[in-house]
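Need ABC transporter permease's 3D structure for a figure. Predict it.
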Amino acid sequence: MSMQASGEWRYRYVQQKGTLFAALLFILMFIIYVSNHPAGFTPNVVQTAANKATLLAFVAMAQCFVVITAGIDLSVGMILILCNCLASWLVVGTPLQTGLGVIAVLLTGLACGLLNGLVIIFGRLQPIVTTIATSAVFYGLALLLRPTPGGSVNEDLADAFTSTFLGVIPASLVVLALVILVIWVPFSRSVFGRTAYAVGSAENAAYMSAMPVKRAKLAAYALAGLLSAVGGLYLTFFSYTGEAAFASGNAYTLYSIAAVVLGGVSLAGGKGSAIGAVFGALAFRTIGDLLFVFDFDPLWQPLFQGVVLMLAVSIGCIGLSRVRNRLEWFQ
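Structure prediction for ABC transporter permease:
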């Protein structure tokens, strides 16, 4: 019995190893950050850091849904930008108008994800090619909505979602936890979630086992678009405006890939979790905060973050090459 329990714990450890590493890395870096911050460990410092990290966390979760299926979505950043621009038009006015605007923004993100999934699944195109093309379309729509920065957002709603809960806990972290509970947990335990993991591990085997492969992949891309839309809403809540920022969209896409790798999600698919991706995003974002606290030269900060991004992706590629080598042993 004890051996069985030991084996079960060992299995769980192997499955969650990446998530645990990302969580410990984030905690260590955050402790260093608040220890060296002029204001120290205060609710205001925690709230500011949480608000900045939440944006990347939502996009990293979006990327995770797709990467688990052995795909990649290079349009998540541009969906975020599109939804930011749309929210600056719609999430205003009376409570009813604001609520309808929020629903419209979320449905737009969902539609963008569905478009990606439909083209990839039924058009049989590679995910990287498809999402590069659709990202250009999404950015074009964002630019059409906001050729110059502008717009506004319901300030009461923005303040409610970016302030603190019970005066201590950042509201953005509460929303992030609720999104994990409402979207990720049910998906990961559903037939579609198990199929998504199976597709990432061996799509042909999943298909031969009569698993709903197409519907699972479509659900993954649709939810990726929805989560990117949530990130777009939060960007509007933070900035109180909309902007078709091409550089920002690309940055969030690249950083989302780094975050999922740091969070233990395999680029080969079939392994990892959105919780790990969230911790990876928090850790990656804390790197920027550390550079600020230690007064790192701003001209060198993009270079340093680029090196971290390269190392993170390299770690994922090393894991992918190991899987391929193991497969070659049996051929």
